[in-house]
Design a protein that fits this description.
By secondary structure, the protein is of the alpha+beta class. The chain is built from 19 helices and 11 strands.
Length: 539
């Protein structure tokens, strides 16, 4: 489906809202000309190569036969173009063939990929997580063996966490690792929901697998991480890991979601024994920011589709783009997309700058608020299309179907809300959030009023019992996301005075920020209300 990279909006969010150029000292090789060239090149790849495959790939899906997954039509050429362009290694270490650029710039490129073809973009997104985990936790020989080929895109990577009986509760996983005489481990178990776990686009797939070494402590304290290649390192023989199923899903039909069987597969420990969660969280944090960006990307594609339809569809003697309610929907879509874009980029800039407190605070907001945004905006896109939105022929339905997975994987949005409360808010007693509140308050108007509600909500969350706080955690994250998004947009328009961005901020001010009082009421709901008025079904 047609897609045009919104480079002006991306640059505004990167530069004016997220503060990309604050990184000049750390990344002296990055300047305006290089940034422009990267964004233009990625935009061309997304619009000319990836977007044309989106609809056909969704319809064709993938095929599994004899353990081999055949990718959707057009993906082989698209992946070759992606690989040859060096896009996988934008932010990777130059020692392994990367370009050493900020993650924020690589994230902007991934936004365009997700807009153009979300199913395709999941392949390089998972490889990014594998690269980061091996960079940060791998031994020198593991880095030498795997990183250059992953960074170049020659090989791809996966993340193998979930098991049939162990979803978010990783302490319940049962995949076992048995030490071997040669220093390797025999990995046995089954993993489900493995994105791009098997495919025909790369000659080798490097699986990062959570397993429990025999005799390890029970629960999450006994989990280790292993590198398990599809083809073994020493002799190139096929490892004993195979895909035994591909899920039939609501959306992302062209992304193979695999059930993987490990049958004594040869693997190598990454990091220390029983410290696998540290390596896992490296991958998860990278994935959560990227999944947040995924929500923004699919929302942008849905917006472009809805806008084009509204400009050609007549109703009541006028184009529907002139109807006030349709304009309300379109403007709400665009304003929230720009806020979500700014949140994701600001999270990446914080990571690039080493501002751990800001990165930690924003990561669950970026993941949850922006993926909820993807669902909301793609749903509005269906609504703008009317009946044509509900039928597959119209094209809007695919964005809604694709967007719906993002609030679920890489830690459900409920888990993100718990994380924001339990690890971030309680961890520093609200200090990082109060910095956000203070900056938002300086801008006055509806943003200051929403920040005031967020301050009350923060006080409540810090003083409430755990059960009461958890009952309001999702509403708290939504409120925090609304304020952070507004704060970043306000920061941007005060730096550049861009007329179109200022108009978007005013829409956000009138449509989004007034919801703060309703969010505050939900924050204060209390666990007792959920029990006192529960249906008999929940007893």
């Amino acid at each position: 489906m047609p897609y045009t990279a919104p480079i002006a909006d991306i640059r505004f969010a990167l530069e004016a809202c997220a503060g990309l150029w604050d990184l000049r000292g750390r990344y002296p090789e990055l300047d305006e000309d290089l940034l422009a060239a990267i964004l233009e090149g990625a935009g061309s790849l997304a619009s000319d190569t990836l977007a044309p495959t989106n609809r056909t790939a969704d319809r064709a899906g993938v095929k599994l036969a004899d353990g081999i997954v055949t990718s959707a039509p057009g993906f082989r050429d698209a992946y070759e173009a992606f690989k040859q362009g060096g896009w996988q290694g934008l932010a990777a270490d130059p020692a392994y063939g990367g370009q050493g650029l900020p993650r924020a710039v690589a994230l902007a490129v991934m936004e365009m990929m997700h807009s153009a073809n979300m199913s395709f973009a999941l392949l390089p997104m998972l490889t990014l997580g594998a690269i980061e985990a091996i960079e940060q936790h791998g031994a020198a020989d593991q880095k030498a063996l795997y990183l250059e080929r992953l960074v170049s895109g020659e090989w791809s990577g996966t993340m193998n966490l979930t098991e049939p009986q162990a979803g978010s509760d990783l302490g319940a996983l049962t995949t076992k690792a048995v030490p071997q005489a040669d220093g390797s481990y025999a990995i046995t178990g089954q993993k489900i929901f493995i994105t791009w776990g098997e495919h025909d686009l790369a000659p080798n797939i490097i699986h990062l697998v959570l397993a429990r070494i025999e005799g390890a402590p029970a629960g999450s304290k006994g989990i280790s991480m292993f590198i398990v290649p599809k083809f073994r390192d020493e002799d190139g023989a096929r490892n004993t890991v195979r895909c035994i199923g591909v899920e039939e899903k609501m959306g992302i039909h062209a992304s193979p979601t695999c059930t993987m069987a490990y049958e004594g597969a040869m693997g190598w420990l990454i990091g220390e024994e029983n410290r696998g969660l540290a390596a896992m969280f490296t991958m998860m944090n990278a994935a959560r920011i990227n999944v947040g960006m995924e929500g923004v990307g699919v929302a942008e594609a849905a917006y472009q589709k809805a806008l084009a339809y509204a400009k050609e569809r007549k109703q009541g003697g006028a184009l529907i783009v002139e109807h006030p309610d349709v304009r309300r929907m379109l403007l709400t879509m665009k304003a929230k997309i720009q806020a979500g874009r700014a949140i994701c980029y600001a999270t990446a800039v914080a990571a690039d700058s080493g501002d751990r407190a800001t990165e930690d605070l924003l990561t669950p907001i970026a993941k949850a608020w922006c993926t909820d945004l993807g669902v909301e905006v793609s749903s509005l896109g269906v609504q703008v299309h009317g009946g044509m939105g509900f039928v597959e022929e119209g094209g809007a339905a695919q964005f809604y179907r694709d967007a719906r997975i993002a609030p679920i994987y890489e830690g459900t949005n409920g888990i993100q809300a718990i994380d924001l409360y339990g690890r971030k808010l309680l961890g520093d007693r609200g200090e990082a959030m109060r910095h956000v509140i203070a900056e938002a308050s300086k801008h006055g108007g509806a943003l200051a009023a929403a920040a005031h509600e967020l301050a009350h909500a923060t006080d409540h969350m810090l003083s409430a019992s755990r059960d009461d706080a958890l009952a309001g955690a999702t509403a708290y994250l939504a409120l925090a996301g609304d304020v952070v998004g507004g704060m970043l947009l306000a920061r941007g328009i005060h730096k550049t005075h861009d007329a179109e961005q200022r108009a978007l901020y005013h829409v956000y001010e009138k449509v989004v920020l007034p919801r703060a009082s309703a969010h505050l009421a939900a924050v204060k709901l209390g666990a007792h209300a959920l029990k006192d008025h529960a249906l008999s079904d929940l007893a």
